[in-house]
């Protein structure tokens, strides 16, 4: 089964890719190896060799190893996973760091949800055990729970709040529905679940029950597990409900959560104050079918077989009791390094978290196994005498599910070093979920990712097209330059700290399209994955292959293939989005409608354009000169390229969120689902203040000054 | 309750309305009345007086009289309704014609639907009797049935065909689903139910079961009856499944269905050959929840709480037995005439059918009572000495539900007279269903209907806006001339024969917006209507008032207020639609994309434009001259205006549908839902033949020749 489809590696595509020419004509310094060194392969030869070594049986075995037991952070399964990961990396001969950290976690102790009236009925808080899916009766599975729920028992009437977004609660208020003292029912979707809690609390709710709606995740989408891949009536989406203005351990913002770190008081951390419980739709139905209040707005109707109501009315009462302990617990990141030969301090990090709410066959292990397989393949290449110029770090993060904790603790423990010499971060959380390649990425990484996808064959294409060609067909890019449409990175997984706090060029790479969702349920196990995504591991091979191609380029090309010019175009696109948003809010009422970008951004747009054009000229010149560069100059250029993107960092951070240092990208403030690009400007627009906008624009002038200083330095180095 | 809201009648609005000026300054010939004639009111004064007389209590009493018993065509209730209508009109002192006709009707005898496997279960074919709705237990209610179903008993596996459209059956074939010998389940919606039968037969189905989906008509839309107005799980939509290339009695196409008329053989009439049965979603669920075949396409998913499947598989069998008798039965139109004083042969017809599948409180009586109330109000005005210049005909059609039979028999019995002097037809079937005025109308009637709506106050507008203003806000028109958007008339109700066979200027006027649907169910009764639409009869008063304003203008203005110029603009709009459709079919592949209208239509478009501009000049001149016109000229002009629209008739009819004589409008050929405008051209486009298109274009040249001859005549009369 191994290598057949992906073994045909394609030649380089000249995209905008000045670096291809640069690297192919350069012979870098040889790595010092103990055995006599074979001739150094070119990066393309190396990519072909690495991709050819990716192995479906290996991926399946890795999957067996990491996704057979439940392993949420701080559990016995977590401890076992950490040990196994460390041992596995050690056996590969990598430098292994087990970075333990002590974070405030939550542990489920007891929960009850009961319909009290019109009749008494205990509602199920656990998935059905299915004979077709033996893991679903695993004795160490936790019932459905939301980490960091308050511990309390409440009884009250019920209110339905649709997705529980800011807008949904505003609509309830407009309709005169009082949530005070009520138990709010909200369905999953529309925002990050933590915001459902935040807004329910703000509306005075006594408790919150979050359910999976069959229209969104069940029969409205496809056949249910175990016949199909979608949720069944017992499926419960677990998950954290933290919404803090920083990621990482709730008690050590900005600091590594060592055992004896200085900590803020838990009461100051802004944790949820009401009990929260996730349920499946069978349980939701048992409550909602009794609701008799006014009908909900048309857009709030879900898939249950009755009209949804805003309130249950006085005859429907529900009792919710949640007991969790919040305590500081130890878990760890397991990080393995393949040291680079030429600039070992410069590191390309690929990572995925390892903790999982249940088995994690999809989340995170569909990505974790790609990290592990990439480590195996690179280690074998090293054994055969190939060492990359720069270091490659294979990172398995702990406690991501609780609040992106492990990766942030790692970043916080070495922020200055990362800012100085971190090359890039590629996140593979839950990456192999189908054959449709997709990525969100910093502008500087878009070219190298496109090239990497072009180096790999699309498994399900009869004509041997590349993964890039298939990707372009699905998602043509906005700039007509042979690159697909990339998403914008904000929060959501372990790339978040790299992007918003450390300012590293980052990407979240994945391949999706499998028809089903087991997300955070007891069914996120190997039986589900192998039936729904496939037991051929084509998806994981595809993702691993692209990852290998990208790491080869990033770690081994003579010039670091980050594209510093691309910020010009991409930031202009974001200014258009900001203009649209500002107009929608009536902020640019008297603006000239003819231009796509509002005049308030004119100077910034001009500077971005000029900067982008200048850097394009400089990088073109660099490409022409690359063969003739002496090593000292080349290494100086690389050091500059690696640091380049930190020009977007501002130590003051975003207004109200000082931990968010990047002025280029952030998570949004009200849903957790969207990325805010040029976030200080976006914040001022959301505040609907032109004065604030002008104030924040000054900070972007400073960013441009720093970018121009980079360009000056590059100009000097390429003179 | 009477008259308060509508009593304030608004002054004339100068729309494009050249006729307003014309009529106000003209004193027509006085009608010969027995008593000394009071001073003749102007049409605006008359409108005000008539509108003021519309009475909610009268409407409610009329509703009680016509919607208390089930009265499908050919039933005892039908007979009683006919007698009551005739007596009522006679009591108003109108000339009453009870036109009996003998049509091929269908009568339900017995039906059974049974789930045979995986378990035996008889499925309900009748609505639940509800204590909140006493009529629902009426002993003379028929079970749910589809008229003209074949009589047969079949047992088979099941196939789900979504809405059973042409495209849906094509998709089934593409997916390799064999319907032969199967019982097809299709949901209501997407097309006229008769086409579901036609396509199921064509696919080889053994039988067809049509169900109401809760997503389309139940909880997907709102609360169910009796709490809300929408369908409940037992609601069954009855209805005919005829799809013939003509309307009227199936056995006497083109001829009046007198008792001894020549008839075609019933076997030649193309009636359905498979049994067909409508059901509610409770019954549908009992079958569909057992289906285990491949899942249906995403767009086919309805509201039942499971994933919809394409097939039941071999373990699901259903038995369907339908017994109906098809026989020639007598029913009648009841038609009352208020003779005009000046040109009694010229008639303005307002009508609604009177037959109903059950009680018909909404369909048709929400419109029928408006016809009756208008007759009452006009009769009272006549009693007070006001007689319109032209005749007004109040028509209550029989057997519309079976295939638009009564109105077509009436038309066929006097086609030459109607073509010579029929002024207009206004259809009010099921018209009063809310306060949102809406109309489909021939171009020549759009101006007079806009003026009529402007003469009436919108009941729910706090600022006393006119019904026209509210209408314009909801549906601004395409021509920026102060008129709202009008729908295009094709088939669907009793206007059909007037439009497509007799070529009369026609309109379907209604006011909608009530939240609910009882369409063709046992719940279409007074309890439902008064709870869902309202017991204040504001809707019926609004519709009646606009109808009175329109009939006043059409029957009593000195110059007939038909606008012959408007066909120019409207037909150009249809040419744009045809261009879009032709391009979608790849017919105009090498066409110049810059123009909205394809070059193949260039000559016709030019002639239409020139004709429209010429007629506008002529009617402007007419408006300026109107005060000075002698009666002879005026009457000659009126006779010309009345006949004008017959220029669009072509005795050869449409290709394959010779009974469809109008080259301006027709029902479509594949769904029964849409209107085909410029239908001979549309037909050629659907045939995807440029040759046929060019051939048909020649017929439109002839239409333009006839229209130009009209214009020549008008020019001579206004010289």
Total E-strand runs of chain A: 17
Which percent band covers the strand fraction of chain A? 15-25%
* Interface with most residues: A-B, 16 and 16 residues
Distance between the termini of chain A: 52 Å
Features:
homodimer, 719 residues, alpha/beta, 9-stranded mixed β-sheet, 4-stranded parallel β-sheet, 22 helices, 17 strands, 36% helix, 17% strand
Q: Which SSEs are present, and which pair or pack?
A:
The structure is a homodimer of 719-residue chains.
Chain A: H1 18-24, H2 43-53, H3 56-66, H4 76-91, E1 95-117, E2 121-122, E3 146-147, E4 152-156, E5 158-160, H5 166-174, E6 183-187, H6 193-202, E7 207-211, H7 214-217, E8 239-240, E9 276-279, H8 281-288, E10 317-338, E11 343-353, H9 365-383, E12 390-397, H10 400-403, H11 405-413, H12 415-421, E13 422-427, E14 434-441, H13 443-454, H14 467-474, H15 495-501, E15 506-513, H16 526-532, H17 538-556, H18 566-584, H19 602-625, H20 631-643, E16 665-667, E17 675-677, H21 679-686, H22 690-717
Parallel strand pairs in A: 3-8, 5-6, 6-7, 7-9, 11-12, 11-13, 13-15
Antiparallel strand pairs in A: 1-2, 1-10, 4-10, 10-12, 14-15, 16-17
Helix pairs in contact in A: 1-19, 2-17, 3-9, 9-17, 13-14, 13-17, 18-19, 19-22, 20-22, 21-22
């Amino acid at each position: 089964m191994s290598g057949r489809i992906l073994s045909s590696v394609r030649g380089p595509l000249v995209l905008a890719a000045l670096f291809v020419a640069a690297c192919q004509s350069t012979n870098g310094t040889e790595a010092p190896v103990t055995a006599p060194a074979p001739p150094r392969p070119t990066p393309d030869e190396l990519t072909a060799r690495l991709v050819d070594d990716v192995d479906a049986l290996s991926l399946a075995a890795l999957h067996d190893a990491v996704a057979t037991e439940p392993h949420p952070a701080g559990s016995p399964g977590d401890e076992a996973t950490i040990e196994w990961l460390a041992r596995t990396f050690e056996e590969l001969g990598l430098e292994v760091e087990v970075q333990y950290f002590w974070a405030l976690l939550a542990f489920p102790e007891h929960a009850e949800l009961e319909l009290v009236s019109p009749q008494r009925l205990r509602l199920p808080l656990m998935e059905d055990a299915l004979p077709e899916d033996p893991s679903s009766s695993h004795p160490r599975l936790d019932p459905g729970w939301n980490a960091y729920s308050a511990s309390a028992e409440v009884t009250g009437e019920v209110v339905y709040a649709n997705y529980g977004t800011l807008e949904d609660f505003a609509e309830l208020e407009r309709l005169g529905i009082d949530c005070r003292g009520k138990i709010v029912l909200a369905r999953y979707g529309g925002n990050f679940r933590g915001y459902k809690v935040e807004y329910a609390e703000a509306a005075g709710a006594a408790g919150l029950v979050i359910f999976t709606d069959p229209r969104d995740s069940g029969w409205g989408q496809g056949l249910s597990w175990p016949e199909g891949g979608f949720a069944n009536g017992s499926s419960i989406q677990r998950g954290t409900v933290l919404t803090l203005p920083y990621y990482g351990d709730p008690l050590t913002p900005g600091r590594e959560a060592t055992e004896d770190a200085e900590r803020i008081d838990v009461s100051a951390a802004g944790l949820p104050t009401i009990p929260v419980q996730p349920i499946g739709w069978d349980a939701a139905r048992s409550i909602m079918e009794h609701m008799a209040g006014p009908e909900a707005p048309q857009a709030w109707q879900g898939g249950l077989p009755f009209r949804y109501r805003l309130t249950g009315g006085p005859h429907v009462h529900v009792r919710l009791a949640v007991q969790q302990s919040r305590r500081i617990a130890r878990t760890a990141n397991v990080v393995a390094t393949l040291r680079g030969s030429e600039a070992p301090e410069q590191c390309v990090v690929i990572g995925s978290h390892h903790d999982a709410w249940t088995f994690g066959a999809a989340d995170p292990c569909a990505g974790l196994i790609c990290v592990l397989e990439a480590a195996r393949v690179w280690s074998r290449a090293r054994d055969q005498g190939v060492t990359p110029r720069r270091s490659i770090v294979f990172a398995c993060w702990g406690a991501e599910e609780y609040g992106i904790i492990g990766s942030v603790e790692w970043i916080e423990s070495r922020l200055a070093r990362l800012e100085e010499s971190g090359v890039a971060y590629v996140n593979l959380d839950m990456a192999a979920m189908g054959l449709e390649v997709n990525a969100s990425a910093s502008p500087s990484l878009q070219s190298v990712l496109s090239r990497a996808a072009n180096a790999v064959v699309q498994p399900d294409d009869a004509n041997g097209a590349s993964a890039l060609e298939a990707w372009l067909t699905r998602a043509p890019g906005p700039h007509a330059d042979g690159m697909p449409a990339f998403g914008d990175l904000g929060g959501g997984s372990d790339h978040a700290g790299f992007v918003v706090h450390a300012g590293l060029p980052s990407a979240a790479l994945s391949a999706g399209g499998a028809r089903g969702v087991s997300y955070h349920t007891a069914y996120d196990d190997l039986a589900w994955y192998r039936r729904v995504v496939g037991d051929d591991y084509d998806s994981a091979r595809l993702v691993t292959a692209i990852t290998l191609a990208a790491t080869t380029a990033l770690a081994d090309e003579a010039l670091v293939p980050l594209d510093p010019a691309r910020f010009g175009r991409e930031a202009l696109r974001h200014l258009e989005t900001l203009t649209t948003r500002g107009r929608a809010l009536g902020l640019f009422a008297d603006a000239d409608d003819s231009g796509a970008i509002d005049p308030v951004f004119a100077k910034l747009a001009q500077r971005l354009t000029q900067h982008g054009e200048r850097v394009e000229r400089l990088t073109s010149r660099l490409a022409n000169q690359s063969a003739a560069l002496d090593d000292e100059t080349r290494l100086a250029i690389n050091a500059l390229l690696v640091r380049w993107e930190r020009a977007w960092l501002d130590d003051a951070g975003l207004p109200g969120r000082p931990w968010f240092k990047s002025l280029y990208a952030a998570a949004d403030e009200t849903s957790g689902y969207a990325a805010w690009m040029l976030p200080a400007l976006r914040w001022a627009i959301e505040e609907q203040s032109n004065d604030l906008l002008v104030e924040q624009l000054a900070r972007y002038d400073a960013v441009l000054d720093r970018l121009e200083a980079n360009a000056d330095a590059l100009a000097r180095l390429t003179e």
